[in-house]
Write a structure and sequence with these properties.
By secondary structure, the protein is α+β, with helices and mostly antiparallel strands. It contains twelve helices and 13 strands.
Amino acid sequence: MKKRAFALLVALMCLAGGPPACAGGPSGPLEPTAPAWTAYDPALHYYYWQLTDPEKRAFSGRYDSIALGDAARWDDCGLDAAGLARVDYALLTDCPELMYMPTSTGAAGELLPPDADYCARHPGEIEAMLADCRAAFGEMARRPEWDETDYGRQLAADRFIAGRCRYAVEQDFGGAAYAPDPALRTAHAALAGGEATCVGYAQGVQLALRCLDIPCLMVYGYVRDGEGRSVPHAWNMAEIDGAWYHHDATWDDRLDEAFLEDYLPYFNLSSAEIGRSHADDPARPALGFSLPACEDTRANYYAVEGRMLDGGWREALPRLLQTAREEGRGALGVRFESAYLFREALNALRRGEAGAADMTAETREDVNFIYLRW
């Protein structure tokens, strides 16, 4: 991600305090008027509904300013810096339909009016970009994973993006890693463009699921890179059959090779599970925004598919491998209920036991995951 795009998040970390009053008095609409606002049910916006009325008016003016290309609509509504930070955070995390990610921010980290800062060739191409995304949803619905359940549609979206999109390799200039084109951080990049950063993946999942009437959030945070440095990252939370789960489509798409079947170690994790590798953005709670509780594990991919293995893994794993071979598959992913069972199984597999001779085993230890290929 571009360093300046995250300057906003750094600035937000320094802001705290309760929601301010609108010094300018009531004025302007509480909801945006631009057509993009109804690209899906507006009730599915999450952070917007946590704003105060003055903040909603400022949000709506800025949203319309971006969507309609009208800088005159950019109104601070008398808000102080903390209130504007809440508004800007909602714009950046709650509106994938805008296809917007700033190329720069103001001196204090605030967003700039659209006459000073464009990203995805706004406003004329927003509807065309949304049309491209809707066409992608049609392709998504033809995937074998698709069914009319929340889980099936979410799975089809993840596999569609993993098969269509590749991760945009970020450049490193003086320790600041960023993608060369800010448009790669939009939903359009992941759903139609074929190349995206983690923000693009997350925005793509968010837009797809919301257009399928599935509540979905984009979550900013941090992960460790290959050299152990903490770097910004984005993923999703989705509400599946009444329970919330973390879903990292970027980490479910192998960055170093093409689409891998049955590779979904980060599909529907609890907060405790994702927390072993992902750290939440401290700016969000500092701004007074909350996230849903996320403690369920029933919709985890490997739990649903019957490949969350317990102490009977020595009998179960050979059966799963045999079934995979009979189905003509060349890979199998499994998870284990504990770190102890994961290590026990991995040691056995390395010795060629459990029916896994002559196989390649890859692991994600943070989620007790083993991926076997033959």
